[in-house]
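Researcher: Quick test of sequence recovery. Tokens follow.
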């Protein structure tokens, strides 16, 4: 939130400066759980560097829901807002630098920002863009084959394919690593014929 907001909305910098001292900076290795499934989310997570995934456990198998990269923020939203057990684990998948801002300070910040005339439009725009992406992914998961989902990932979010390990991508696409390898081989063979 704060990092990309500072760049996109410099008129709000006075607020970011005020809350930076309340943020806990953490340098963490890969596979560090920032929130565990079943815990109540107490912090908003801001990613300075690195990659984070949200996933849940289904009968001992990880099901990746989403990936997050530099200059983005996340929480288990329902858990964070309504103080309910999180449905997801949030975990780093590469060495990362993250900042945690407590729920108390986030609520104070939101209250202060709500008095800024442009803030509601900013939040609505960001929420709409994220909601559209999640809806597109949901529809794709229902409508498209795994191969079509992988091609969509390659064209629309190639940074994921470049940075994220194959078994996490397979989990995100809802296939096994073996199945993803077959899809990649088939696509490679198809390119050879052109």
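Model:
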């Amino acid at each position: 939130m704060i990092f990309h907001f500072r760049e996109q909305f410099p008129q709000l910098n006075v607020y970011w400066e005020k809350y930076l001292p309340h943020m806990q900076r953490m340098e963490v290795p890969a596979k560090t759980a920032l929130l565990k499934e079943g815990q109540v989310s107490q912090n908003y997570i801001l990613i300075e560097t690195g990659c984070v995934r949200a996933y849940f456990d289904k009968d001992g198998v990880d099901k990746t829901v989403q990936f997050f990269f530099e200059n983005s923020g996340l929480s288990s939203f329902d858990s964070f807002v309504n103080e309910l057990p999180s449905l997801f684990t949030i975990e780093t998948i590469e060495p990362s630098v993250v900042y945690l801002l407590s729920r108390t300070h986030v609520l104070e910040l939101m209250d202060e920002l709500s008095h800024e005339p442009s803030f509601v439009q900013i939040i609505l725009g960001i929420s709409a863009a994220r909601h559209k992406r999640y809806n597109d992914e949901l529809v794709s998961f229902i409508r498209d084959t795994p191969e079509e989902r992988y091609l969509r990932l390659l064209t629309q979010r190639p940074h994921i394919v470049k940075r994220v390990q194959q078994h996490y991508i397979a989990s995100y696409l809802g296939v096994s690593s073996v199945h993803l390898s077959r899809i990649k081989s088939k696509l490679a063979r198809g390119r050879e014929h052109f």
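DSSP finds nine helices and eight strands in the chain.
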